[in-house]
Amino acid sequence: MAEDEATQADAPMAAPEGTATEGTAAERIAAFAAGLRGAEVPEAVLRVASLHLLDAVGVGLAASAAPHCVGWARAAEPGAVPLLSGGTDSPGSAAMLNGALIHALEYDDTHTGSVVHGSAVAVPAALAAGAEAGATGREALLATVLAWEVAVRIGRAAPGAFQARGFQATTVGGAVGAAAASAFLHGLDPARTVSALGIAGSEASGTLGFLSDGATVKALNPGWAARTGLTAARLAEAGMTGPADTLEGRFGVMAVFAGGVGGLKAELADMGARWHLPDAAFKLWPCCHYIHPFLEALGGLMSEGLTADDLTCLTAHVPPPMAPLICEPWVRRQAPVTGYDGKWGLPWCLALLLADGVVTVESFEAEPRPEVVALARRMEWVEMDDHGFPDRFAARIEVDTGAGMHVAGVDSVCGGPGRPVPDGAIRDKFRANAARRLPQAAVDRLEAALLGLAEAPDLSEVTAALA
C-alpha cells in the first residue's frame, strides 16, 4: 500500500457494535463478524484490500498458464469457474482451484509476523461465497479483510509454532478465516457463525510434506482451506454444529497444530482497533518469501558491479527458523529436482539472479541448468543471530571474489512493515501476470473492476472481465 496511508490503517477505531470481550475465541470472532458490515472500517484498509485482491487475481491468472498448472481445471466439479471468478453452481470447487492457482507460483503475498499467505485463502473464499450470496463489492472486500485478520491472529498467537510442527499456518488459520468470511457473506447469526468456525477448525489441515520432493500439492493448501471455510458455513447454516472452543480447546486448533494456546486471547482482544492486513508484504519475486531479502542483498551488490564470474564463495547468514524450508538439505537446494522445486532453494535462487540478472515466473518453468547448479555449489550457509523472525525477514550475505570480500544485508524484506511497495509496482505486476492469460483489453477491464470493487453493486463486472 502507499506509504502515506499506512499510518491511517493503524489508527484506532471503535470495535464493531456487538464485539465480544468474553467467551470463547470463536464467539469473539463471530461477534466481530456480525458487526463488521456496519463498522467504520478505515478506507485505507479497504483500499489495501483491493490491492491485495488485484495482486492475487493477477498471480492466479499467471499460474493458470503455467505448465504444471494447466490441467488442474479438469479437477473442477461441473459448474465451477476456476479462473478466479466465483462460480455459483460449485463455489467450493471454484474456491479450491482458485486458491491453488493463487499459491501455485509462490508469488502471492505474506504477512511476515504470522507467516500467513492470506490472499490465497481470503480472495477465492470471498469471491466464491460473495458470488453465491449475491454480495456487493464492498461486502466482498470486507469478507477478504475478515478472513485475513482472523488467519493472521491465529498465526501470530504462536509465531513459528505451526511450521515447527510441520503445518502451514496459512491453511490452519486460513480455514477458520475463510469460514468467518463465508458466514459473514451469507448473513449467519453469531451462533451459527461459531458453529461454522468450529466445523472449519475440525477440518483444518495442511502439512509441509511437499518439502521432501518438491511436490506441487503445496499449492492446494490455501485452496483447500478456502473450500473448507465455504463448506463449513453452508453446513452450519443447514444446522450442523461445531465446537465453540475450536481454537483454544483441549483438542482445538492451537493445541493440535501449534502445541498450545499461546497468545490467542491477546491477539483477538484488539480486533477492530488494530488492522494487520496493511502490514502484509507483496512479493517481488516468485519464490519462497524467506529468500527475498537475500535476493535484495545480492541485487544490491550486483548493482555495484558484482557478476557471476567474480564469485568464489557466497556465505548466507540465515535465521534458523527459515533454514528447514530454504536450506535443508543444502545439496538439493543447490541442485533442485525441478524448476518448481527450486522455488525453495536459497542457493538456487541466488544463482539464478547471478546467472540471468532476473528471477521471473519463467525462471522456474525451465529444467535446472548445469551452469546455475555450478554457481549454487559455490555457496554455503551459517546461522544468523539477532534476526527478529518472524516479525521481519532479514538476510546477510558475504561474497568472496578472491580479490576481496563484499558484505550486504537486509533488516526487513521489501514490502514488509515500514518498507511498502509502491502502488504502481503492484499494478505493473498485475498487468504482467494477467497478460499471460488475458488479452490487453480484458486486463485493463479487470484491473478497473477490481480496483473499483468497493463501489460495485455486485461481482458481475469482475466475472465478466474474466470471462
Short summary:
The chain has helices at 3-10, 25-36, 43-64, 91-103, 119-133, 137-157, 161-164, 169-185, 190-203, 220-237, 253-258, 264-269, 292-303, 323-326, 330-334, 346-356, 370-376, 423-434, 440-451, 460-466, and strands spanning 313-318, 379-383, 395-400, 405-410. It is mainly alpha-helical.
Describe the fold and architecture.
The chain has 467 residues and is mainly α. The chain folds into two domains: 3-284 and 422-466, 2-methylcitrate dehydratase PrpD (Orthogonal Bundle); 289-410, 60s Ribosomal Protein L30, Chain: A. Helices cover 48% and strands 5% of the residues. Strands 2-1-3-4 form a four-stranded mixed β-sheet, with helices on one face. Helix 8 (169-185) runs parallel beside helix 10 and helix 16 (346-356) crosses helix 17 (370-376). It is globular and about 70 Å long. Mean pLDDT is 92; it is low at 1-21.
Number of strands: 4
Q: Report the C-alpha radius of gyration, rounded.
A: 21 Å
Beta-strand portion reads under 5%
CATH superfamily of the largest domain: 2-methylcitrate dehydratase PrpD
Per CATH, what is the topology of the largest domain? 2-methylcitrate dehydratase PrpD
Poorly predicted runs are: 1-21
Strand order of the largest sheet: 2-1-3-4
Strand count, sense and barrel status of the largest sheet are: 4 strands, mixed
Give the structural class. mainly alpha
Highest CATH level, the class of the largest domain: Mainly Alpha
The end-to-end span amounts to 28 Å
* SSE pattern, N- to C-terminal: HHHHHHHHHHHHHEHHHHEEEHHH
Number of domains: 2
Total helical elements = 20
pLDDT averaged over residues: 92
**What is the overall silhouette?**
globular
Supply the CATH architecture of the largest domain.
Orthogonal Bundle
What helical percentage do the residues reach?
Answer: 40-55%
